[in-house]
Amino acid sequence: MKSFAMRLKSLLLLFVLAFTVHAANTVDINTASAEEMDKVLVNIGPSKASAIVKYREENGPFKSVEELALVKGIGMKTVERNRDLIEIGTRMAPAKPAKGTELKSVGKR
After folding, report:
1. DSSP-assigned states of every residue in 3-25
2. Do residues 88 and 65 lie in contact, with contact meaning Cβ atoms separated by under 8 Å?
3. What pTM did the predictor assign?
4. Dihedrals φ, ψ of 105, to 5°?
5. Residue 55 CB: number of other CB atoms within 10 A?
6. Which of 16, 32, 54, 86 is 20 to 30 A from 64 in CA distance terms?
7. Residue 27: enclosing H or E segment and its boundaries?
């Protein structure tokens, strides 16, 4: 029985470590600094990372990964190469419900 418990713990630890490594190797282009993007993204150096931040400041947050290709110096090849490393708005607050769409209690059943 100890053998099974030990294997289960090892498997759980491996899963947690794998998830942590993946999470650390992604970047939210709507909140990351140029330095963070430079470290994580492939073929994005300091000048392109700064261009991403400048574009974001001038045009608002990115709505899709593809929109990154609108930044001067970044093409769809670079976007595709980095697709799995990019997150969009994962740290943003959830949207507020539209007025009049709140759930209402219907009383006892």
Report:
1. HHHHHHHHHHHHHHHHHHHHHHT
2. yes
3. 0.62
4. -70, 140
5. 18
6. 16
7. strand 27-28
